[in-house]
Amino acid sequence: MLKKNVPLIIIVLLSNQLIYSQSVFAQDKTQDANLDGKIKIQGKVRALGSRTDIVDAMIFDESNRQITTRSNNDGFFTLIVSKTSKGIVIRAENFQDLKIKIEDGKLQSESPFLLEPAPEYGGYGIIRAKKKDEISQTSFQADEIDQAPGTSRDAVKLLQTLPSVLPASVGSADIVVRGGLPGDNSYYYDDLLLPFIFHFGGAQTIIPSRMIESMDFYPGAFSARYTDTIGGVIQLRSPGKIPKKLSGEFELGMIQSGIYLEGNAFGKESNDSEKVTTDAVQADNSTTSEKDNDAIGYRMGFRRTYLELYKPLIQKLASDSSFVTIPQATDYQFVFNGNHSTGTWQAYLLGAADRVSLSSDIGNSNTASGKNSFSFYNYTEVSGLKYSFNLGNGYGLSVFGEQRYLVFQQNIFNDVIDAKSHLFVLGTALDKKINDQFSYTLGIRPKVARNQVGFDVVQYPSGDPTVYFDPELAPRNKTSVTVNYFYGDTYLDFTYSPIKSLKFNPGVNVLKGPSANQLAIDPRIGVKYEFMEGQTLKAAWGYYSQLPAIQYLISGYGNPNLNLERNIQYVVGHEAKFFDNYSTDLQLWYKTSNNLTGPAVSDPNNKFENSIQSRAKGVEFFLKKKPSDFWFGWISYGWSMAEVRDPGSGAWRFSDYDRTHSFNLVYGQKITSRWNAGFRLQYMTGNPYSTVQGGTFNQNTGVYAAAPDGNTYLINKNDGRSPYFMEVDFRTEYDFLFSDWTLTSYLNILNLFNRSNVAYTTFNRDYSNTVSVTGLPILPSIGVIAKF
């Protein structure tokens, strides 16, 4: 029903915008009138290349700078100057001055007055631009997501430029945080809990950057507000304001295309009354308040990749490679927001689909070509509704509901999985501000899930099987089950500041899983102390818990009686701000995990048990210069060590995702007002792998298996390490500015120096030699983005 009505909805919204635009256009005309030897100048200030009004622009008489005014919230202004004036000057932050002459008592230009962007950054804040709420937190604003080079305007890939945030595999946006696993992280879009945040292989985030106002990243030791995760939290936030007018963009590139629109319906026109300023009168910039506006804001987007069209070329280029994957990704978004008598509301509909084909000569193949077949498809659709209420007397209440549908189908080397999941969430949070020193939040989030899973797979041990695991000899598991889960959490989070420079953030989160034995009470606390201006010490500690992955809980394949996975996290650090535009962040962290899901040790019939322990520690350093003058950039370095204890031998071994060193250098600059460029350099220690002493041929199965070395391994021994990873990515953009729209052309080059980075190391058919599976070669991409 929704898909059938989408064109009608778009037509109605666009028609409303056209009517509104015509009414506004009538007010755009410059008015020059003689008033007793003076000239009355009226008009509107807008950015060249868009329909964006410039708020608070200064307009002054070039002959008498004491005569000045400012544009209001809709870009309108009125200025009265002498008839003998040489002209006026319009000045706004981040824009070049516009000088307009007056000749024969007439202004030599008409409204709207279009300002061209400045060739330098105006000093707007991007990273950590807003006040930090958590001890370990990095915040990105929309401008930085768009400008950061080497990330293809992708929010989550931007995180990989931070210390101790590593890609799960080469080229992937999926991340590993502080020695954890990819599945340990949680992803939110406002209050919506997303099953994943990136397309298959981490190609890109499922939500485009235009629909992200900011992104907060909490790598660990976060407050009690977040639950069911022992890794990091990525909090995406949608734009909160109602769009004032229709705008959007269309992208046409070699790899993907997309469209985005935003605007409002049923809105009141703002009050564009004249605002005059002389040396004795100040401008009145008031307009219709957002609270009184009955408009419904809308934002909608659609994207589609078409890499599959290049399949013959990719296969030819990859003829010397061991790994060829061809993904196809689609996503769509509808977000609506508005106001009610005591607060705001938001409604969401998000969808994403991935389809992937792959051919590979990795390992043993049962086909004549030596290639193994691979197919993958998933689809998720998330809808939600949130209401926020201002109850007065310091109380605030938010209520939200979420429905999430997930389809997951795969055939990986004849292992077949067909899963469908339906999740329902109903949450509420009560905020109370007692005074400027003390506030708290009490929340509860019950969840109901219905999972239908059918599979015909090898019974694998927990996690990735070791190099000695022989799937030809392993039993197969074929079953179909339907399970219903009821679980959820409640939390209480406090903020207390006895003095302005000292802040305490204690709290507790209680997580209840679907089984009687799955209950955790997790206390947490964070402390920040600004001992001098721009210098802050911080520390945090807490318990964290999460449910085991769903496949390990399913009866028949897994163990429904598994306990919650838990860890303890510690963080100490120091923040500094200096020279206005510079800041540093130094953090030392340590965490220990127990009850992680692993192989069944006490009873093989359990298939999986909470048999794994892990430990990780690290140091992070981050130096950043926010955009000012003509450049911005940052340097990040992380040292870490992540180990896992073998439940069989008790030996501690490197985690599959351990990378000792990570270094990132990001640099971007404006070359001219219309041309910018930047690059990202990324270096990482290679990932570990397990060595073998050759292979043995099994005459019963007709394939080779790794030769045992006399020891028993229940996890990967990881005694070898792949070569280091280093890549330089480059992006440049040039804007062609028209009166009310911009055409941006871009060149994006991944792996600029065409380095063969090893994604992972495996072995040939008889295990006599290693095989290095490399990532993508140099990958240039050009495209255009039309913005209005």
* End-to-end CA span: 30 Å
Number of beta strands: 45
The overall number of domains is 2
Largest sheet: 22 strands, antiparallel, barrel
Q: Write down the overall mean pLDDT.
A: 84
Q: How big is the Rg?
A: 29 Å
- Overall body shape: globular
Multimeric status of the protein: single chain
What is the CATH superfamily classification of the largest domain? TonB-dependent receptor, beta-barrel domain
Percentage of helical residues?
under 10%
> Number of helix segments?
5
CATH class of the largest domain: Mainly Beta
Poorly predicted ranges (pLDDT <50, ≥5 residues)? 1-32, 123-130, 269-292, 359-371
CATH topology of the largest domain: the name is Maltoporin, Chain A
How much of the polypeptide forms β-strand, as a percent range?
A: over 45%
Q: Structural class of the helix and strand makeup?
A: mainly beta
State the CATH architecture of the largest domain: Beta Barrel
Structure in a nutshell:
The chain is mainly beta and 788 residues long. It contains five helices and 45 strands.
Account of the 3D structure:
- Helices cover 6% and strands 53% of the residues.
- It has 788 residues and is mainly beta.
- The protein folds into 2 domains: 2-118, Immunoglobulin-like; 138-239 and 293-787, TonB-dependent receptor, beta-barrel domain (Maltoporin, Chain A, Beta Barrel), CATH 2.40.170.
- The protein has a 22-stranded antiparallel beta barrel. It has a 5-stranded antiparallel sheet with strand order 4-3-6-7-8, with no helix packed on it.
- Strand 24 and strand 25 form a beta hairpin.
- The model is unreliable at 1-32, 123-130, 269-292 and 359-371 (pLDDT under 50).
